[in-house]
Automatic annotation (TrEMBL), chains A, B, C:
<dbReference type="InterPro" id="IPR007691">
    <property type="entry name" value="LpxD"/>
</dbReference>
<dbReference type="Pfam" id="PF00132">
    <property type="entry name" value="Hexapep"/>
</dbReference>
<keyword id="KW-0012">Acyltransferase</keyword>
<protein>
    <recommendedName>
        <fullName>UDP-3-O-acylglucosamine N-acyltransferase</fullName>
        <ecNumber>2.3.1.191</ecNumber>
    </recommendedName>
</protein>
<dbReference type="GO" id="GO:0016410">
    <property type="term" value="F:N-acyltransferase activity"/>
</dbReference>
<keyword id="KW-0677">Repeat</keyword>
<keyword id="KW-0808">Transferase</keyword>
<feature type="active site" description="Proton acceptor">
    <location>
        <position position="240"/>
    </location>
</feature>
<comment type="subunit">
    <text>Homotrimer.</text>
</comment>
<dbReference type="GO" id="GO:0103118">
    <property type="term" value="F:UDP-3-O-[(3R)-3-hydroxyacyl]-glucosamine N-acyltransferase activity"/>
</dbReference>
<comment type="similarity">
    <text>Belongs to the transferase hexapeptide repeat family. LpxD subfamily.</text>
</comment>
<dbReference type="InterPro" id="IPR020573">
    <property type="entry name" value="UDP_GlcNAc_AcTrfase_non-rep"/>
</dbReference>
<dbReference type="GO" id="GO:0016020">
    <property type="term" value="C:membrane"/>
</dbReference>
<dbReference type="Pfam" id="PF04613">
    <property type="entry name" value="LpxD"/>
</dbReference>
<keyword id="KW-0441">Lipid A biosynthesis</keyword>
<dbReference type="InterPro" id="IPR001451">
    <property type="entry name" value="Hexapep"/>
</dbReference>
<dbReference type="GO" id="GO:0009245">
    <property type="term" value="P:lipid A biosynthetic process"/>
</dbReference>
Length: 342, 342, 342
């Protein structure tokens, strides 16, 4: 694609260099070569611009100055990240494969498929389940009974969706994810753990993405719910009856026990943990590896285990680094006081 | 089901309200509606009782007082949690599906199946493996060679059981769990990691439940063993040659390195970690996100990383919160001593 | 196998006992019985030697002394661990199964298989993908399109390898591992998380082992790479665009965010976490449960979250244990100073 075309299709204006060159792919600013396009979205990478071998670079007006390399075409735009992201999609289109229902899949006689549904080999779809228009169920995926999957969803290979799950539109579920297994609940009686029946289900709203090998347990009674637009990374554990709001971000290997409420726009960084029956307020940020044992206020930024306000937590950690010295200084001061007392 | 019938089948006595009403399902006390049954098992939720829309509520004698809502039928019983749990099972029976050995499964010619075994589509069962009466092997599950599975087991979709595993009766293995992969062991020689052969196996005793995507590695030599009645949550890593006792609870995302002994009734809360060759005593409790690097006494309750007695750990955390102020106070005290010395 | 033969095939010299006895299997020093071979590789287990029931024991010259049990044949060798490891392989050979391409697998018409390739039932291999000589693709494994798998690889059941992955020779990928799913990246615009397209891929070099249910995301642009000889345990999360060097060890449940560099020979113990864009130097050791937020020097040994030099971290933890007492002592000292001031 010519730089000129790329510019016009990605809301950018070509400036300098040779805009009649063709671009075949996208790369980051340090590894890009001739006939590649890159992006400068953060001023701290600006030093790499003068050495880039890229033919074109998306950039915001504000980052342009006199020292721009002469051979490079700048693609000046309002939102370089989004323009670049769109360029990547244009230059690296998803491969088109033949959509079909594999003769090697097993669909229950009461299962229903919308228009343009793809079902890969060895996938299974249970009784009374439905898959909406243009959705894809890849090889080896397991769709249980009474499962409703909306339109334009992508269920990746070997993902497992248990009975009664309800999945919206434009939902992506990556390989090996398990949606709707029993929650982990027992009552200890007569020297044995009596299993609490889990008769609830999982609800996943529109535009949610669920990472590979992530587990989302169904509710004991009622739903476990993931709100629209929320994104969940790989290897996350989301226990029974959690209610996750809209546009929530949960990063890799985080674990949320059960019956928690995570409000809209909250962010849980990697490997965080949340005790049960906790509420995390809207747009709160839980920093990586933190453990949450009580409610978090909307907008709060917390760190540590148990987590507290991140500034307080950092002050404590800074103080801890001085503690070994303090212990010595204290001994010395005690001796001085003892001398004064004599 | 009529309230009267529900009461008699769940060891309860109906009192008040209209016990001739029918109940169609169970719900928690805050979301229950008419024709639903709920439970009050913990006094702290008692405030919700007066507003509940439920038609009936399991309750212990001791929690009843004069202010009980008039329209509600109390289901008075000795153990409300267990009575309610049984009610949930009665009201939400597991769907009955046709049990069969799918024509789309592949069973080795030397594999043997008991009476009433169900094998789903695309499941595989290897040479010399056996599945006991009334057990279920769901779609896409992989049973290796020389595997013995007992009676009334439920192997969920896409679970993988490697060769030589021995599995008792009434065992549940959730989707995507991997039982019997190689342990992680190498010897570093001549600038390469030489793989330690793992020729042991995994033994899982009766009434064990293994969560989704959990991994239990086989022993290097001899078994990795999970004792009867133990329950393991999702995404747990249990390394080679661990010996887990009876009725042990291991919560989500915990990791036990290898060659550990976890004695009967111990509880490992979520995201705990255990170094190798450690013994955790009977009924010890390891609190969430703790890291265990040495033996834990029976009955101990530990917290932190590295973990110590929980009261000691909490005292230290409380002290840490005062440390930034202490550093300032110390400086002031030093100045006062200096002045006295002049 | 006779002890004499075992000795000669494992670079050892038989000394004492009855070397004409036969050995049928291997066991650890505490559980070994007659006709088993064991090993003493670490002096701290020497006390168990006098009670062992084993018929033979690999041992280094330096650990032999006058008190060796009379009935035991010592297998004296330079490297007891490696000699024993080889003995285990000889005594417990991997079962030979019939290698074939299952009639129940689905291979794209453009997929190519080398000589002696095994493909299990219900495996799938996509368009333009290749599997090299003597490699094994087990039941239910998913090999996407344009995937290159080298020779002597073992892809275990239900593992999933996404499109465009490049896998070297002698690579082991355990059950349920997911190679090449999308990285976790979004840009927040107009109240929604816009998905960053991931058009990169995963490269796995020779002699790498990937644990069960581990996830390795593909690069956004360019590769996520695992260098030759590196070993990754179960349930590890390796994010997009990480570059892992040669002979790196990453233990169970560790998580590496994205765009990190982990240099040759580094060791990440269990449940460690690494923030994005971090460099971990060659042969650095990150101790269990540590969290890395900044670059680590080659050869450094770090602990804690955020991690620092392990000796510094331990000194701080030791000081913390004295803090509750210090707070009390400080109050007492303040009172004494106050008295002096009067």
């Amino acid at each position: 694609m010519l730089i000129t075309e790329l510019a016009s299709r990605c809301d950018a204006r070509a400036q300098g260099g040779d805009a009649t060159q063709s671009i075949h792919s996208a790369a980051d600013i340090m590894s890009a070569q001739a006939h590649q396009v890159t992006v400068l979205s953060d001023g701290k990478y600006k030093k790499h611009l003068k050495d880039t071998q890229a033919s074109a670079c998306f950039i915001a007006e504000a980052l342009i100055d006199a020292e721009m390399p002469a051979g490079l075409t700048l693609l000046v735009c309002q939102d370089p990240e989004i323009s670049f992201l769109n360029a990547v999609k244009l230059l690296h289109p998803e491969p088109v494969f033949k959509r079909q229902v594999s003769e090697h899949a097993v669909l229950a006689d009461t299962a229903t498929l919308g228009y343009n549904v793809h079902v890969g080999p060895f996938a299974t779809i249970g009784q009374n389940s439905s898959v909406g228009d243009s959705s894809t169920v890849e090889a080896g995926a397991r769709i249980g009974n009474h499962v409703a999957i909306g339109k334009h969803c992508h269920i990746h290979p070997n993902a497992v969706i248990y009975d009664n799950s309800v999945i919206g539109n434009h939902v992506i579920i990556h390989a090996g994810a398990v949606i709707g297994a029993d929650g982990f609940g027992y009552k200890f009686r007569d020297n044995q753990h009596v299993k609490v029946p889990h008769v609830g289900h999982v609800e996943i709203e529109d535009h949610v993405e669920i990472g590979a090998n992530t587990c989302i347990d169904r509710g004991a009674l009622g739903p476990t719910r993931i709100g629209a637009g929320s994104k969940i990374d790989n290897l996350v554990q989301l226990g029974h009856n959690n209610i996750v709001g809209r546009n929530v971000i949960i990063c890799g290997q985080s674990g949320i026990s059960g019956s928690c409420t995570i409000e809209d726009g909250a962010i849980l960084a990697g490997s965080t943990g949340v005790a049960d029956h906790v509420k995390i307020g809207a747009r709160a940020v839980v920093m990586a590896r933190s453990g949450i044992s009580g409610d978090i206020e909307p907008g709060a930024q917390v760190f540590g285990s148990p987590a507290k306000d991140r500034k307080v937590a950092w002050k404590e950690l800074a103080a801890l680094a001085k503690l070994p010295e303090l212990l010595q200084k204290f001994k010395a001061l005690e001796a001085r006081v003892h001398k004064l007392e004599e």
